[in-house]
Amino acid sequence: MEPLAYDSFQTLTRREFLHGRGLGIGSMALASLLADDARSAPRITRDPLAAKQAHFAPKAKHIIYLHMVGAPSHLDLFDYKPTLKKYDGKPCPQHLLEGQRFAFLQKNPKLLGTKFRFDKHGESGLELSELLPNLAQHADDMAVVKTLHTEEFNHGPAQVFMQTGFGRQGRPSMGAWVTYGLGSESRDLPAFVVMVTGLTGGGGSSLWGSGFLPSVYQGVRFRAKGEPVLFVNNPPGIDHAARGRIVNDIGQLNKLQLDRIGDPEIATRIASYELAYRMQTSVPELMDTRAEPKHIHEMYGTQPGQASFANNCLLARRLVENGVRVVQLYDQGWDHHGDVKGRLPRKCKQVDQPIAALISDLKQRGLLDETLIVWGAEFGRTPMLQGAAGPKAGRDHHKDAFSVWMAGGGVKGGTTVGKTDELGYHVAEDPVHVNDLHATILHLMGMEHDRLTYKFQGRNYRLTDAGGKVVDKLLA
Asked: What does each C-alpha distance from 18 to 15, 24, 27, 439 come to in angstroms?
């Protein structure tokens, strides 16, 4: 079969060439720059999701990232401040407010001490809130960073920053970078899977997008109800065998064009069609948890067939068990500008048991040592109250010091990194930037963050684009 000809030739005058048909000097210059990028990029001639060798032996093979959308108060969960509790209801010292930006706080805010008891747990004596009794059983598996800081103080940009290392949309997400760097371990499931409880965060699908990387590396959203992955099922009148023939024939045509042009998006199209065909069998079977034993459902607190964060935690275990590289769970409802005392316990009750169950389940199956669990949010919460003092007081956004924890593959359990001041307001020791967190995650996955690059618009980009260093204190 002769290759299909896509080129067309037409005689143009000089004026038509420079000005007509949408071409001008600017367009020519842009085309030249894009051509330079295309020439410098490697030609894609194989499966872009094929497993790739890490820079060095990885500690973890999989990531389960738990993002609490809206940002829970670290001061009520992980960073106990007796001094803040002592001065509860007192005016905030003015020198702490100078030069600061807040989303909603009014002038002269008052301090808000936690209303919850903190206790020490495990051999490490890790201090945790009474709102996390199940997670407390894993104190010696956890490494808590108390001094994470970011550059964005509004939800959407901060969520994007937390996932891409940049405060505006358009950059690849962390999951996309990991998938680009390591490829996939599974032929029948995506390398990067996303599940959302409640509404999607303000950062939208860019939180798991591929940015300027080939789109084959973006996250695939799974849904707990209805069609697990949109548009994977056959249209009316097309059976599985017919779908297979169509995918094969289109794949042959795409491969001819790929060999000719080398455009990574053609390789993406081939891989996507073939994976979608295989997922018609693999995904429904994986998403059906009814075969799980009764004690597993009881451990997670799930009901078969019922959508919930707990069900997504169980599915996360099933996904990594079947070779999925990156799993991200987003849980909405943590934006507590008011009534922290009433609302935070309700949200913690929804996630505490299933997260603890996920850790236990992975450990029992010998998977925790190779699975990195990361729990976090886009920023933290202020030690000053928002609204009127009293039982319905809330907390505003706070970007300068907040908490995140990690467990599993390569993490030094029972560890606390960093210290905030006596009000939990500023970093006092060992600051950890979001780029440092990203560098550490990549390191645990066997990649040097400054070597994982992609050339776009004339320069090499990376997840830790402007900085980042591995936090050695987190490493086992």
From this structure: 5, 5, 9, 47
Q: Show the tokens assigned to 64.
A: 């389960």
Contact 41, 427 (CB under 8 A): no
CA dist., res. 345 & res. 397, Å (int): 19
Listing DSSP states for 77-95 in one string gives TT---HHHHHTTTSBPPGG
CATH number of 62-226+285-474: 3.40.720.10
Distance in angstroms between the alpha carbons of the first and the last residue of the chain: 57
Asked if 76 contacts 346 with a C-beta cutoff of 8 angstroms, the reply is no
Please choose, from the candidates 86, 91, 92, the residue with its C-alpha nearest in 3D space to the C-alpha of residue 425.
92
- The amino acid sitting at 456 is F
Q: How far apart are CA 29 and CA 36, in angstroms?
A: 11
- The answer to whether 187 and 141 have CB atoms below 8 angstroms apart is no
Q: And the tokens for 376?
A: 């976090």
Report the largest interatomic distance among the alpha carbons of the chain, rounded to a whole angstrom: 83
- Residue boundaries of the structural domains of the chain: 62-226+285-474
Query: pLDDT tens digits for the chain (476 residues)?
Result: 333 333 333 344 444 444 444 444 444 444 444 444 444 444 444 688 899 999 999 999 999 999 999 999 999 999 999 999 999 999 988 877 777 777 777 677 899 999 999 999 999 999 999 999 999 999 999 999 999 999 999 999 999 999 999 999 999 999 999 999 999 998 888 999 999 999 899 999 999 999 999 988 999 998 866 666 655 565 666 666 655 666 666 667 767 777 777 777 777 766 665 655 565 666 778 888 888 999 999 999 998 878 899 999 999 999 999 999 999 999 999 999 999 999 999 999 999 999 999 999 999 999 999 999 999 999 999 999 998 888 899 999 999 999 999 999 999 999 999 999 999 999 999 999 999 999 999 999 999 999 999 999 999 999 999 899 999 999 99
Contact 64, 407 (CB under 8 A): no
CA distance 281 to 187: 12
